[in-house]
Write a structure and sequence with these properties.
The protein is α/β, with parallel strands linked by helices. It is built from six helices and ten strands; from the N terminus they run E-E-E-H-E-H-E-E-E-H-E-H-E-H-E-H. The longest helix has 15 residues.
Length: about 220
């Protein structure tokens, strides 16, 4: 059962089941991660609690939300949906500058550790262009906001997809007149979205993107 806490910030995005080999060759299998949870962990260093929003595929348990509730995060916006979609991520961290996401069999063989069953059949996700008007199973919709979330004055949208980033900020500002921070997604930081970006970020307090995302968007431009 979700516990209700007072909060003034919403963090929305994606959740992944992550398997990680860290640089010390320690293994962490099928742990909750992704933009929403990493942002929540960072947010907790400065503030107490926020409302979280994400969608989880039907076969994934959400018992781990209790741990985040113990840190005064409201998890009523995290929901299981009827669709099944890929939520696995693999990382092999060699050092601060080198992280591998492909071929988990090779990296587990190197450390003499059996391949976890949760990674059977795993293929790393390929970056593809987002669809402008078609939602993905994990896209965020206005209906995904619990009523009490709309009392918060700040919204952080982690990388999701173009559909969510174009739909949610106008909805949220119309209901709250609050602040919006957008974290860019690889799926639309592409020259083909050049004319959509100005309207996407208009009205936002901040638009956060990596150098590689900016360079990709501006490819071919002077």
């Amino acid at each position: 059962m979700n516990r209700i806490f007072s909060f003034n910030t919403i963090i929305a995005g994606r959740v992944f089941n992550e398997t990680i080999i860290n640089k010390n060759k320690q293994v962490f299998i099928n742990k909750p991660g992704g933009g929403v949870l990493y942002a929540a962990a960072g947010f907790h260093l400065w503030e107490k609690g926020a409302g979280l929003i994400a969608k989880i595929s039907k076969h994934n348990p959400i018992e781990w939300t209790q741990e985040f509730e113990s840190y005064h995060f409201n998890t009523s916006g995290i929901t299981n949906i009827s669709h099944d979609f890929e939520q696995r991520k693999f990382y092999s961290i060699k050092n601060s500058n080198t992280i591998y996401v492909n071929n988990p069999q090779k990296h587990f063989f190197e450390i003499k550790h059996p391949l976890p069953k949760s990674l059977l059949g795993y293929e790393p996700p390929q970056t593809v262009l987002d669809k402008r008007n078609t939602p993905a199973p994990y896209s965020i919709h206005p209906d995904d906001f619990p009523d009490d979330y709309l009392q918060a004055n700040n919204l952080l949208l982690c990388p999701i997809d173009y559909y969510s980033h174009s739909l949610i900020p106008p909805f949220y500002r119309s209901r709250t007149n609050g602040n919006v921070i957008l974290c860019a997604s690889d799926g639309y930081m592409h020259p083909s979205f050049w004319f959509e970006i100005p309207s996407l970020i208009r009205g936002s307090s901040a638009f956060l993107a990596t150098e590689s995302q900016i360079r990709n968007l501006f490819k071919g431009k002077k």
